[in-house]
Amino acid sequence: MVKKPIIFMTFFILVLPLVGGAEDQTNRLRSFISHYCETYESKDLKKFATFFSSDATENDMPFNRLLPKYSRNMEMTESFYYWIELLAYSLQPDTGNVKIKGKYFTKFRFHEGTWKKNSGNISMELKDIDESYVIIRLDYDD
To answer: What gap in Å lies between CA 85 and CA 110, rounded to an integer?
Structure first.
């Protein structure tokens, strides 16, 4: 009878740090995603580009090659709302990077146009750098 409380207490002690660590990780990821979306909405391309590593890819294209397209889209857009719902994440054991999966939602209006919406699946591979992240790989569908 003495063993049951000891086993329960040992299990309880081992699980609490894991749950707290996972909650901290989830909060860090949500904070990163929120800041990423806010920066995109602000249409500050220079600041937005800092979220990506120098060799980052977006749908298998080098991100740096897509900067002119981002610039045109930002210039054409009068209003833009962007948010990502984090669905899951995992630590990549071979690299130590974090892979996230989620759903993205956009609502935008071009100058003198009507509101349009878009949504789909999104995934990012993030490298942990100095208490934040940079995007190494971004993939999404329409």
So the answer is: 24
